[in-house]
Amino acid sequence: MNSTMVITVVGIVAIAAVGVSGRRAPSKELGEWTVGKRRFSTFTTWFLQAGESFTTFSFLGLAGIAFGAGVAASFALCYLAINFVLQYFTAPRMRQLGLRGGYLTQADFFVDRYRSPLLGKVVAVVGAVFLLPYLQLQITGLGMIVQLATGSRAGGNWSMVLATVLTVGFVLWSGIRGIARVAYLKDALMIVGLVVLLIGVAVSVKGGIGGVFETVRDAHPQLLTLHQPGYDATFFVTAVIISGLGGGLGTMAHLWPPVLAAGSGRALRSNAIWLPLYQIALGIPIVVGFAGVLLVDKDAAPNSVALTLAGQTLPGWLVGVVAVAAASAAMVPSAAIVVGISSLLSRNLFSVRDERRQLRTNHLCVVAAAGLALVFGLTRPGLLSDLLLLTYGGLTQLAPAIVMGLAKRVRLGATPALLGIVAGVAVLTWLTFGGVDVGTVDTGLIALGVNVVVAAVAQFAVREQPGAARGTALPDTGAEPVAEPVPVGPSGVPRAHGDPSVS
């Protein structure tokens, strides 16, 4: 076992140990495990929300796109900027409604605002199904990172098993507090790993970073334009729109617990203002991808570029440090995704009434979701990777109903909202797997248009009175709700406090 493998394995174990240390007292109910006491500081919420910016995609995907398609990789910087602009307005409102209504999950929002447990169950299924491939992507990405860093395929597979087991362990033990603790370490490791990689590139190319772009400008000018096959201007614009809406409007279930756990709406607004600073760090993998055009074999797999460059430009022990940083970028999002999936299933799909049984069911769902993603990652990685094509576009089909539900008075009925979601998902599935040629337009955006039209027509046709409009849309007074235990109905449906406020 070489030094790189030793450092990587020790690092993975250390990450899990930090997660285990986050536990304060045994969780006796799902609320404490999922959102703590809803009093997380701005500092803690910052790192929890930053988790979606730094994932395995940051290390492998962005460098790979820059390697093959050049400046098209900057779409990630654009959509994340849109995410944060939208979150400035939506996240405090989500937290306010969640505090008043006792939400623990994204689906609780739909149950409460639309007065429809059926809609909540459908959202739970959609969320879990489309998040599972995203979970598998993190696990498979971690295995690829270790394999590329160490040169051992078996080592990559065993690291997937080890990291998954350890992640499940600290998630079950510590819940969201453990994820928050690891998020501190992960972001520090990511910054260090990216800076080390950038320095390695800078000293390996004549003229440093500036020399990279000068050479690319002269030898590969097409990479500085949006004219690469599959990555043209249409791809760029539509991908930015669909990804920006998806993240900014809270369509991914694992983004809700950090928002619901925040101590104040002010903390969420502050984070939305300052989190875009992380995009400076996200520019580093793009630079690395351009450097790969000059230093890596042109036939290399795009996703291998970052770690291949690390192996070429850094000593083995530093490659291990970069690999640990990349592994942390897989483990923390994996933990958050597992919490998102398991809480949707145990609370909203299975509707377990007893709190202790609900928590036990949730823990079983954690093990099942992580185990399923791991098995597919090891045996049939292509199976879920196909479904991954639907993840962002599929979850964005929840956006119209979320927007309507955030209003003071919900003017969309549960049935039209449900029909719109189903229609959007069906169209997306047909466009993705039906062999329909739509060019480089993001299919999620086309499906979203169908979704909106179907929901609007259905609302006009049935003239259904919106659920939350029947005496539940309380006036806003500008007061900040007090974070206190929130009553929950016997069926697991949140019961409103009746505290009218805006955060």
Tell me what you see in this structure.
This is Sodium:solute symporter family protein. The protein is an all-alpha fold and 503 residues long. It has one domain: Sodium/glucose cotransporter, CATH 1.20.1730.10. It is built from 21 helices and 2 strands. A hairpin with a 2-residue loop joins β1 (227-228) and β2. α4 (56-69) crosses α13 (278-295) and α7 (117-150) runs antiparallel to α15. The longest helix is centred in the middle third of the chain and has 52 residues, at 153-204.
CATH class label: Mainly Alpha
Q: Helix tally? A: 21
CATH architecture: Up-down Bundle
Please name the CATH topology. Answer: Sodium/glucose cotransporter
The number of E-state strands comes to 2
Question: What class, by secondary structure content?
Answer: mainly alpha
Radius of gyration: 22 Å
Number of domains: 1
Q: How large is the share of residues in beta strands? A: under 5%
Protein name: Sodium:solute symporter family protein
